[in-house]
Amino acid sequence: MNAPDPAEWAEIAPHPGARDLPAGRHELHRDRLLTAIARESRTHSSPQVWRRPALALAALVLVLVAAAGAGLAVSSGDEPPAALPSPQASRSAARLPPPGAVAKIRAYGTVRELTDSADLVVQGEVVSVADGRSVYRVAEVLYRAPVAPVSTEITVGTESAGSPGRPSVLYLALSDPQARVYAPLSGDFGIFDLAGETATSRSSAMSVTGLRTEDATGAGRAFVTTLADLRQLASERG
Fold first, then answer.
1. Cα 81 off chain centre by
2. How many CB atoms neighbour CB 168 within 10 A?
3. In whole angstroms, what is the distance from residue 228 CA to residue 226 CA?
4. How confident is the model at residue 9 (pLDDT cuts 50, 70, 90)?
5. How many CB atoms lie within 10 A of CB 219?
6. 3-class DSSP string for 37-62
7. Rounded to whole angstroms, how far apart are CA atoms 173 and 156?
8. Has residue 58 got a pLDDT over 80?
9. What distance in Å separates the CA atoms of residue 228 and residue 238, rounded to the nearest whole number?
């Protein structure tokens, strides 16, 4: 088959560039091409690479803030948040002593301190012990505060007040005013056993060391004095 003559080929398939596009089509294609080039430039430009993490970080911060706010709202509910006490209020509360006989539980250094803290100081003996309490027969009242009721027998809220028939001097706090129950000051600190006119602290570990002033050399030993000395200190308070 012979190739067509160039003149005949021009008639059969004219050159593409020889055919004009419709009016305005050139501008349309040019605008599309420029738009595509600009978009491609923005996609691969370095500022955009750095801007994306910044935008992502900002979005993350917004999400966390929103989540924190929602969590606070859920946890608080309809109740207002509790106010924390001020340091001044905390210190004031810490300085408040406990009420009643509990405030008199301490380590006493002298008989004077015991006398000044007691609601009742009596000499006598235990009559009976039952149910964690002792019935104490009072032979002499050395000191009585106005609020302290007393009769020939009182109730002491412990079994350690002494064995029945054993003479003693008790320094007592009114632990239950309604039931008229007493308790020795700081346990054995408020108990002295009597042998005639000699008064000896019940415990060597829980004992005063002096009448009016403490004696460091007497620490860890039972304190020995006389019933007359105990009476004298009680009268000084009264």
1. 18
2. 21
3. 5
4. low
5. 12
6. HHHHHHHHCHHHHHHHHHHHHHHHHH
7. 10
8. no
9. 15
The secondary element (H helix, E strand) that includes residue 236 is: helix 227-237
Quick one: tokens of 13? 């398939």
Distance between CA 208 and CA 216 in Å, rounded? 10
The structure's pTM equals 0.58
Task: Phi first, then psi: give them for residue 92, nearest 5 degrees.
Answer: -65, -40
pLDDT digits (tens, 9 = 90+) for 187-200: 899 999 999 999 99
Question: Which tens digit of pLDDT belongs to each residue from 107-156?
Answer: 899 999 999 999 999 999 999 999 999 999 999 999 999 999 999 999 99
Write out the two tokens for 152. 């020939």
The contacts of residue 155 (CB under 8 Å, 6+ apart) are 133, 134, 135, 136, 179, 180, 181, 182
Sign of CA dihedral 95, 98, 103, 106: negative
- HSE at residue 70, side-chain half, CA atoms within 13 A, is 6
Backbone angles phi, psi at 189, to 5 degrees: -55, -35
* SS3 call for 151: coil
Q: Can you tell me the distance from the alpha carbon of 44 to that of 56, in angstroms, rounded to the nearest whole number?
A: 18
